[in-house]
Queue: 3 jobs
Job 1
Amino acid sequence: MSSINYSEKIPNNVNLAEDRTLQRALEGWQPNFIHWWDDVGPERSTNHEVYLRTAVSVDPSGWAQFGHVKMRDYRWGIFLNPGDAERQIHFGDHKGEKAWQDVPGEHRANLRRIIVTQGDTEPASVEQQRHLGLTAPSMYDLRNLFQINVEEGRHLWAMVYLLHKHFGRDGREEAEALLQRQSGDVDNPRILGAFNEKTPDWLAFFMFTYFTDRDGKFQLSALAESAFDPLARTTKFMLTEEAHHMFVRACCRARRR
Ligand SMILES: [Fe+2]
Ligand SMILES: [Fe+2]
């Protein structure tokens, strides 16, 4: 595994520097992502520095850095958990075979659909929550909200990486479309109904972290078993961040007792 070069635009542990085509595709997508963040990300947050954790590696003993950062300057990186060359598929028709490092043609359409659907939820929740910063009950809640928002942004990056790396031109088109659909939009809504609902107040947000994030955890846990190994490895690492999203639900409930 490569060490991470912090001077790179996109922090990663996937040897991005050695794949110029992929790097260029991602660097092309990045400005559109920032544009999306400015447009429909957390409202009136642009000029504020926020104390945030940033994933910088997958080392369980120290995977994150903490510091003040303006959210649009957050370093959305790409991290896969370490691979196991011997990993096998544990269920289904392919049980016992080696996990796939590339997408088999026969499962391409389904895998793309799964990755796009997962990817679509990540920016959708940021859009749903964009007004909440204006009415945060406390600084503590505000920081938790923004932490979740930037990490959902990173989860979008995680899925876009897979689309760019493994799905060629239609993967790139899907990556663009992930920035074009919008939560609640009449003409071009997000894929799943729950992500088109309004999150008008903090009670709705806590319910979101209580139920939807929990559902998301099981969804990610299922994807972490995927026969497509890069998907399994990236979702395993996403679960590390997701633990905090569920903690927000639990701790908010505890504090209100
Ligand atoms: Fe997420
Ligand atoms: Fe989450």
Job 2
Amino acid sequence: MTVRLLDTLSGRQRDLVPLEDGHVRVYSCGPTVYGPAHIGNFRSFLFADLLVRHLRWRGSRVTWVMNVTDIDDKIIRGAAAAGVSIEALADRWTERFLADAVALRMSEPEVLPRATRHIEEIVALVEILLDKGHAYRTDDGSIFFRIASWPAYGKLARLDPDQLRVGERVEADEYAKDDVRDFAVWKGPKPGEPSWSTRIGEGRPGWHIECSAMAMKHLGPSFDIHTGGIDLIFPHHEDEIAQSEAATGQEFVRTWLHCAHLQMGGAKMARSEGNIALVGDLLDRGISARALRYALIAAHYRASLSYTDESLAAATAAIERLDAAYLALAGYHEDRTDDPTLPAALETARTAFGAALDDDLNISPALAALFDLVRDLNRRIDARTMSTADADRAVAVLRDLDRVLAIGPDLEAAALEPDLQALVDARAAARAARDWAASDRLRDELAERGIVIEDSRDGQRWRRSGVTSHA
Ligand SMILES: [Zn+2]
């Protein structure tokens, strides 16, 4: 297998050939923890998760680093407004971010580095830039990257360096920069702002330098894949490339991947637009976390995606179709010979699924392969052509594909609470005794408690009703 990815920098689809054989190093720009991440942010994080999961499914070892920006202007303002320290504010929203990530089944990155815990690495990087003449100090103790010293500047965003930042209102008066295009790698101390006393002076890191320092600390000076939202291409990632490559003389990142915005109500989801939706709020409203994950990953990462009631309803319906198939397969019993055509059908689905994702994470045909398989399995269940062992084989393949998608039912959450299980058992006994009055009464009682009982040829089975499931 070869995974091909469309690299933003070269504009070309390229085979992924890891720098170290069998080991892919991935860095993703993570949350700035001054408030809860919204589902537009999570679209970008979950696309990186899909990438990581797919590479692992293909047998690669993956080291995934996602930074947490815990020092910037918004955090400083937010902490001052709340009357707490920046650490307390950042801790609070980091915790919330991690809880949301778990709810959405995002794999846990190997490293979640925080900027304030990498001041030494940041200072060391700035020192190199100063030594090499790529950075300079200003009177207020700030240090700027000198874009004029780096002719490749603009290669990611495909911008003409001479045209950069024209019209952008830069703090030119506040900081006496040599060139309006230059960006701060270190910000001099200001009253009321947190600062660190370091070898390069008192101050705090600029945002862009944090990602360069943390990525290189945990993944080395060159690594395979860097992801982020398209809004980060310029200036954030452009600046990361400039300062990293100017410092090391090596290619910083082999492949750049950028995820399109999530739209809601006709505009990009953004705090500044006032159209944000939060994971916690949606789950509190009874929306299934699995349906939400599905809604956020079901479109190709570079395609614009709208979050609407309709898209969520479609996601919920897809999850229910999947759950129904798992349920029917789990309860399927047929004492007969194996279905001779099943192995090929399972293999065809698995092959189509993998090939689609190998092709720059082409999720739509991958999901089509999954749901075509579900339809085929439902036909085989109805026709009773499978053996009991066949049903187990089919579940194993669904579970295997779910290592990438992470939208399937949770096996542990599937176990019923003891009191509900007792009611389910009592209902089965009533049915066996042909006590229809008791059987109906128990079914109604279970329905009131969120458990739907269905009778099938394989006997009675239960599921948790609709949208109240958080599994
Ligand atoms: Zn970043």
Job 3
Amino acid sequence: MGVMGLCPNACTRLPIRVIRLQRRFNFFLPAPAPSLFWLKVRGFPGIASIFTRAASYDAVSSPDDEVSTSTMCNQAPFSGLEDVMLGYIFGQRKVTEVAHAVWKKVVRKGDVVIDATCGNGFDTLAMLRLVADENSCRGHVYAMDVQKEALESTSFLLDRSVSAGERKLVELYAMCHTKMEELVHIGDVIRLVAFNLGYLPGGDKTLKTLPDTTLLALEAATRVVAPGGSLISVVCYLGHSGGREEFKTVESFAAGLPIDGWTCCKLQTVNRPLAPVLVLLYRK
Ligand SMILES: C[S@@+](CC[C@H](N)C(=O)[O-])C[C@H]1O[C@@H](n2cnc3c(N)ncnc32)[C@H](O)[C@@H]1O
């Protein structure tokens, strides 16, 4: 299997190369807009504990062999997922597309979401489109990465893809995702934390997410997401060294979450052993 098959966002590599070429030759680059590009180390001192929507959305507990339901799940129509799921089953859609389609069913305009590994910004952009409510200036994306190159790539993608008003709804941070709680303000209702693990496509493959820090970040994510219908979405890549171990770490963390508060599942192509796996942790 070629490298393309293993890389996250493989089909988007061409635009990234174009962006890098543009940078190298210094053309087409928009003037940087410092007021819009929030590149901060460690964010604010504020910490939050944000279980604000608890009572009305509390999950109905059920025996192990039954499917638990939350109020939000009962109310939400699931149409729209069929196409992408069938596309995935027929080998025509990527697991990242399934992830985005599931996010769409959980996230609402005005929500606050976290991109824990912003990389080249494709997930950040997808999240922004879900939350952006320009009229009320509501909706917010906290996006982070440990690599400056990744944050620049994300900023560049956002600058050319969204309006100035929408762009203001994203804050980019140069920080490790284990510290995500430092970004969250009291009152933020975090509906989604997304991880797209591994290395920066088109970047240095030795700079990648690692099982130990991923585990700490997952623990942090479980503390920040709001009860009553929120999601932690994790795309794991198995093709690079350490990738399978990291997936196992994610899987066993998910398997250990209590069933009265969480529904955890994975989407895996079993006859492509190196295919990326989507692990979804749904907070009821
Ligand atoms: C597969 S890429 C993410 C792709 C991205 N979501 C996108 O849509 O383009 C993984 C990213 O995780 C970043 N990363 C690695 N370790 C990290 C950490 N501890 N905290 C935050 N980001 C990290 C890498 O620098 C890399 O850019």
